[in-house]
Amino acid sequence: MDKTQAVADIKLFSGLGEREQASLAGVAEVRRFAKGEDIFFAGQPAQGFFSVASGKVRIYQTSLSGKEHIIHVFGPGEVFAEVAVFSGGVYPASAQAMEDGQYLFFPRERFRRLIATEPDLAMNMLGLLSIRLRQLVKKIEDLSLREVPARLAAHLLLLRAQSKKDRLTLDLPKGQLAAYLGTIPETLSRVLRRFGDDGLIALSGSSLEILDVARLEAQAGMSGLEGGLEGRMPPAAGRG
After folding, report:
1. Is the pLDDT of residue 78 over 60?
2. In this structure, are residues 134 and 232 in contact, taking their beta carbons and an 8 Å threshold?
3. What's the CA gap between 174 and 143, in Å, rounded?
């Protein structure tokens, strides 16, 4: 892996100059994880944070009853566990690779020494943390105030806004997507079938096509959706 190029591809660091990106590459370590391999568990000492160079990772928590709840899914160019840089302590959730992939690992102490001399890095980190906080608040609202059809509709529209396409591939297997939306697979399947029967979407395995954006927006209970979705994602300059 070309570490300098991998750093340049990280959305968080996209606004930095070549010198700063080279400095980041100097402290990063390349790590590889196979599909299904655990990256870290909740409660383990937080030694640093990660960026996805290739593949996909899910962040999840497990309840006392053993039920998993997916908090977020990250793909290439995104970072996770960055809170470790500032708070230390332990990882608050677990991470598992969803695909074979390569990652950059930024050890906490080496990174903190670097940002002490690079204030732009600190500002970028604060911006990312602010975005993550807004996303978490929005998800709590979705899970507490919306029914499953509205949650699913909002998720499909978010995927559409990110890809800028009406034909989508679900970003998670249906079982994991159900956990992410705070429901069970059977309920998710029923809602997907209903959306198909009502002409909102056309289903084809793990792929689907959005047929009626306006009605899907109404189902999600959102107005001015495109602007609202942009508020849930990093700024356009930082997106792939």
Report:
1. yes
2. yes
3. 17
